[in-house]
Design brief:
The chain has eight helices and nine strands. The protein has about 280 residues and is an alpha+beta fold. A nine-stranded mixed β-sheet has the order 8-7-6-5-1-4-3-2-9, covered by helices on one side. Helix 1 runs parallel beside helix 3, helix 2 packs parallel to helix 4 and helix 6 packs across helix 8. The chain is globular and about 60 Å long. About 30% of the residues are buried.
Length: about 280
């Protein structure tokens, strides 16, 4: 076996070389490693390398999401027809660096946007990543329902966003971002396909559950997604600071999330005008 990183220059990777990439960039957990080696092609490994951030595990996507995308690409649930993705918790006032009702998150001059920018951007990016396509149009309600500032007035930014996304393929689904889930955090995604249903990070034990038309359940115990109360180091901030301090070009370009930002801004326009907004 050739050394690292010369592995990536080879035209054909042997199993041990794939295992090396897996352990360096994704996971060292044996069950996760087995899933990756089983389902990932050589091209998948090279794509993972191109999205590498820092010196540790990939920061952009949790390992379970990498597997989920591969299962979708393989056709395990057939064609995705509809979907719903949610990111909701009780709000940033409990964990912000300046906690309380006067947190900068609630100040429109400082934050500009609320739950849609804080949470919605991530779920928008995720849907596009999982389905391998872009949001084509959006119809959205972005509003402030409950959060109040230190004076008892509704905050100046949104605390809830509900968007109906139509994808390039015609699939339709909802993206919900909320700061008013006063209980267990919800960071789940469900895709309804022509050959089954995929539930991602909805179950505390199994990160991926595929339910087939005959009710057969296929369970994947890969990992669990981070929460505000349970954080792990991704390497993203370290890599970001390294680029600033040493004048390096970031390996994960800002261009990669422009399409998600376009969907966010189109959703804001939709909420203001009450119209469906086409993108692109």
């Amino acid at each position: 076996m050739v050394g690292w990183p010369e592995i990536l220059k080879k035209e054909n990777l042997i199993r041990e070389e794939k295992k090396c990439i897996c352990n360096r960039l994704m996971t060292t957990e044996s069950h996760m490693e087995q899933l990756i080696l089983k389902h990932f092609t050589e091209e998948d490994f090279r794509r993972v390398w191109m999205r590498k951030i820092g010196g540790g595990v990939i920061g952009g996507k949790a390992c379970g999401l990498l597997v989920a995308r591969k299962l979708i690409e393989r056709g395990d649930i057939g064609k995705v027809i509809t979907f719903k993705t949610t990111f909701g918790h009780g709000g940033p006032e409990s964990w912000s660096i300046d906690p309380g009702s006067n947190t900068w998150f609630f100040d429109k001059k400082k934050a500009a946007m609320g739950a849609m920018a804080d949470l919605g951007i991530h779920k928008t990016d995720l849907v596009q990543y999982l389905m391998g396509e872009y949001v084509a149009e959006t119809t959205a309600v972005i509003t402030t329902l409950d959060k109040k500032d230190g004076s008892g007035n509704l905050i100046g930014v949104d605390d809830n966003a509900i968007c109906i996304y139509k994808m390039e393929s015609g699939a339709v689904g909802t993206m919900t971002a909320s700061w008013t889930y006063y209980g267990q955090e919800d960071n789940s995604t469900i895709l309804y396909g022509s050959k089954g249903i995929m539930r991602i990070y909805e179950d505390p034990e199994y990160c991926i559950k595929i339910i087939k038309p005959d009710n057969e359940a296929i369970l994947y115990n890969v990992d669990q997604i981070q929460t505000n109360d349970k954080q792990t180091k991704s390497g993203v901030i370290d890599a970001f600071m390294d680029c600033i301090v040493h004048g390096k070009e970031a390996q994960l370009s800002g261009k990669s999330v422009l399409s998600a930002m376009e969907a966010v801004f189109a959703s804001i326009e939709s909420a203001k005008t009450g119209k469906t907004i086409k993108i692109g």
